Amino acid sequence: MAEVTKLIHKYLRHDKKFPHVWCPGCGNGILLGALIRAIDRTGFEKDDIVLVSGIGCAGRLPVYVDFNTLHTTHGRALTFATGVKLANPRLQVIVIMGDGDAMAIGGNHFIHAARRNLNLTAIIVNNNIYGMTGGQYSPTTPYGALATTAVYRNIEHAFSIAELAVTAGASLVARGTVYHATMLDRLIEQAIRKRGFSVLEVISHCHTQFGRRNKMGGAVDMLRWQKENAVRVEKAAEMSEEEMAGKFTIGVLVDRDLPIYTEEYRKIREAARRRLGAVK
After folding, report:
1. Kindly report the CA angle at 74 between 69 and 76, in degrees rounded to 5?
2. What Pfam families does the database record attribute to this sequence (predicted)?
3. How many domains does the chain have?
């Protein structure tokens, strides 16, 4: 308990930004705890961290932490983060986005950030819905699910965030859940430490907008669903397609070393300066 209190006073704006706006039982609170525990283990100073977010429930997270923070416009968190990283590559840039924020209006930015392999960390909270703005279906809403903009059922097929990140070229791609909180700590820490563009998809729950509408129960019921349907990557490799039906993998999907954009960009700048010096 003393350690928890220490982290709260060290990393949270506890004296001016609380109570938070999240619904009771929201997975974002679990993510917030995992994030500050992971950052504490990395040893980075608070001034080394820049936490960037867009709009939505997950986008509120930087408001509550005592780092350098940037609350940006909808879908543009990665573009702002790119500018920060290019301006000062020394900073540890972490981007928090929701599934609608990252995959809909921000989808093209996400693909190209992964392709460039920028040296930053993208954490995408996937709760299958637009939670803050009224329960509209998002690019990760399952086929057949209900939403305020799909009152008869959603007829679009969902993006797989992690697999899209792998294909687009991210260096590290992982998936966790807010139920597996200890594992989530480790995945966030690994993503922050990774050199290159690291993506962590966090399966969370929105019992207010998604669970209630789709008769999935409350927060505890939705956490139980995560427990029962998440399969660690190592175990999934030993299971048949039939055994994996309706389930999803958690853990590190890809960990590879690729040229890092900020380092390649620095080489281009140095080459241009040498050439301009020679011309003069």
Report:
1. 70
2. TPP_enzyme_C (PF02775)
3. 1
